[in-house]
Amino acid sequence: MRKYELFTAKEIRPAGWMLRQLQIEADGQSGNLDKMWPDVRESAWIGGTCEGWERVPYWLDGFIPLAYLLDSDDMKARAKKYVDAIIERQCEDGWICPCTEDQRFEYDIWALFLLSKTLTVYYDCTGDERIPDVLYRAMKNCYGYMKEGKIVLAKWGMRRWFEAFIALDLLNKKYGEAWIKELAVMIRDQGTKWDSLTDRWITPLNKWTQETHIVNIMMALKYEAVSHELLGEDYTGIPEKLYDHLYKYNGTPVALFTGDECLAGLSPIQGTELCAVVEEMFSCEHLFAYTGNTKWLDILEKVSFNALPATTSEDMWTHQYVQMSNQIDCTTFPGKPIFRTVGKQAHIFGLMPHFGCCTANQPQGWPKLMLASFMKAEDGIVSAVTVPGSVKTQIDGKAFEVSLATDFPFRPVFDYTVTAAEPVKTKLIIRVPSYAKHLTVNGKAARAKDGFLTIEKTWKGTETVHIEYELEAKIVRTPAGLYCAQMGCLVFSLPREYDKTMKEWVDQRGVERKFPYCDYEIAGKGEWRYGFENAPLVCEFRGIDKDVPFSEKNPAVVLKAKLSPINWELCEGYERVPAAKPSSPKAIGDAEEKVFYPYGCSRLRMTEMPFALRRK
With a threshold of 0.85, does the pTM exceed it? Predict the structure, then answer.
């Protein structure tokens, strides 16, 4: 049984730095793909001749909530144009994917599962009553084909079977017909049994497989949570076991897993695909909503506030396909790339380095994080992800609003304003992370219980609650056996300066790269060979840049650390990649004070380092 319910974009509104981040996204690549990228602009989903599989559903999955969170009439109209075109092309028998009738049984219906999830988002945002009927007919058509054996899950649909359950859950609640649960069972039975594959995640392979594909796995983290209720099964905690196993053998300092595209082991110089970042976020959002386990919020925040901003440019017009924690250069490899299963340009910033899936899929990251900020409990409102924003809802038929002003994750100070025109007795349940120290409420010492601070009272008029806690800056061990600087959910990196070269060109498909949606190669410069000294970290809060929350030039908070130069070789055969570890951490010079930036503010960076050793 789901513990918390998500609010929709009709109830949630962003504010502060989060509003600015969403505006940057809308003004950048994600908000403009329908104007300049053929795979969206001329997609077969709307009658064009370009890709008619996952890219338009991926894009809409993020573009729709972005449009409604920003209340942009232009963006909402553009989203509706696409949804209308898709609905208009639905066949009489319910088939909705863009292919000919004789191609149906070869078409990978992962796209149907993805579209159904996307239309559910549109329904949440708009209340458009066409959507349940569209989903009903599409899924009933799928049910008939699967029951007759004409469609059998394979390829991507087989691995991502659980994505269908978000729409199936909606249909079951609205219609409650027996075939819906029958379809759910058929999909589950034909889908990949992810908990049986964990042995394959221990040793990385230099080959591409569906079972070690990082995006499949990040989606699959939530499979038991989203499917167990409809299947009539108990929740047994499989996601928690999968995550811990993955982290042991493939973890990174920012709660990601290496995967470029497939699992790549414990190494600071292996990449993580951007699709995996946003899918891990989405899985964590749903895992917390279903289970109430704050572990998923810890993970969600670390991924969201570090990995997501780090792998896009400040203006969000370009992105990487893969990011690395020790990333000292992002230029095309002249020979074999360091990555296990992606190409020479996967780490440069551009329109679609390597594949276009991340171009289409990355828009969901920030909007869905905002939609997870507040959640509905049976007995109150949960402030789950403490980003600035508000929720307007009704409790017992009475209007009730909670707004949060905060600079978190850069500074742990929170001002909640609760507004109730009529008396409302309810709980305000505020998530307090395990790393918080010296919690105070309105200036008085307080204690959280099981990760939450609960304020239960009868609210009337406008009341404020001021909360603060302290964060400890410390050096922690990473899964790869090195160390990194961390404070709260933020990981910090030694930034590296670079020269940037813009590339405008047209590929063999005729897809144009033109400013601002061009490509950039980033050539690092300056010293990077350091090890930590055993000295305290000093925190300095500088204030959030009003134009760019995760600014490279004006980071909101920095740590000052003592480092010493060490001999750290380049990876054998490469001129611009550090070795995974230095052969010796022996200090070869005097200690120096260096300024560390948040990982998300550092495009080139050294994150994982050893302690420098000195002989007495």
Answer: yes
